[in-house]
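step 4 of 6: structure.
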Amino acid sequence: MTELFANPWFHWAFYTVLLISFALGAVMGLIYIERRGMGRMQSRLGPNRTGPFGLLQAVADAVKVLLKEDIVPANADKVVHWLAPIVAFVPVLLIFAVVPFMNGAMLADLNIGILYVFAIGSISSVGIFMAGWSSSNKYSLLGAMRDVASIVSYEIPLVLAIIGVVILAGSLSTNEIVKAQANIPFILLQPLGFIIFFAAACAEINRSPFDLLEADSELVAGFHTEYSGMKFAMFYLVEYAEALAMCAIISTIFLGGWQGPVLPPWLWFLVKTFGMFYVMVWTRTTFPRVRIDQLMALAWKFMLPLALINIVVTAIEVVIWPTPAGLPWVLIIVNFAVAGILIVTWSRLMKYGWGRVETTLR
Amino acid sequence: MKLHFGNGLLKGMLVTIKQNLRHPTVTQYPEQRLNTSRRIRGQELVWNKTRCTGCATCAKACHQGAIQIVTATNTENNKYEVETYRVDTGYCIQCGICVEACPYDALFMGARYEKAKYRRAELVENKEQMADSLDRPVSGYFHPERAEKLPVQTLLVEKINEDRSKE
């Protein structure tokens, strides 16, 4: 078996098939988790009619959507309209190439894995902008513009939040980062980084409370208003595949990836990924959608400075205690204290009118 | 001054996770039904064949003229029989005046629902369709002694059994 995997062509073919089937299969699972979990949090049941416990609801929806008529608006830019779902979908699949399922079990162990993820990951917003532009619909275009605005803003805290992890791990390779978390997951050493990364990731993949580009109440469905049938299914798939990719990345760099006792490594990875997704469902159910100015203010006034301070603090810590494995408890306490103090003090500045305006808001 | 540092976010998340852990407050309608109120008036008429004397007080009392009653003497059995008893439920406004008017307690309001029909002709109910039976529960309207015996209203199903194959 090992000599078979030593053959690069076999390795490539095996992991390509595995990753595509994993992405498509897990998306079904995510949709089920989201609809049922959200239902329970809203004191409902969620879909439970199709199959046992509603497990086949995603399959039924997929079949329905694939059999629907594919409508292209008369004034649409046909080629761009046709290409947009593919341009949005391919980069999401590419992210999975550097996600380690086990020790070294990944399509490509790039030594710049994390950089690759964020270089590739933001391409799908090009697909979304193409969709908004080509639909010749003002609401679609507005949604796409908001998407570009939020991605440009949130890419910065997203990447800065990771630099702390990279400093601690000393590597950009995802597999090396997981190996560096053998003793302690980085969520404990980088609590502030985790919070910033999680919020920025939610904005990056346009999940509620940052789902301004879809904003059902104002923009109908944003960029995919004019899409139907299989192309709509592609966008739906992109939405959840992005969420899956982000959850996989979070569990890789903050939760220790495949590291864990008793259970086999791939199962640990899946448990962490799906658990992370449940937290995303939880935040989605809880929080109302932010306004576009609040979205920008959060990115530039709150997350960016905190992410920069986090990098400085982490760098100082690494210089003072060169082997973090030696003194993890001191570091954990210091980091949680720093995160708490920074969030509380900085939130003082996030008040109405930058804190200078008196309000009677409660 | 109260401190606000995003603790509202945490409070909100606590609320949703509490909802997640408790029972959903929904009823799986066609399989699970809640008991209606004892004081419900009801949407149909239930007619008791044995008590009815064919006096036609109900038909006279009906403001809508929805009740048709035809009586005849059965010479063979030496009996006075109700030949036809029909109500056009399309005209019935469920006012219950016929039930109040009946001197022999032969007419009741029924608490059954899901009475929608596809054709107007199907709305006309005859003797057999209106007859008193077990699957046509009588409501407590104008008969408080009956209302007391009705099951107590339920607002929530205690335990939701999602595996419908077990039912």
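step 5 of 6: annotate
 - DSSP finds 15 helices and no strands in chain A.
 - The mean pLDDT of chain A is 84.
step 6 of 6: archive
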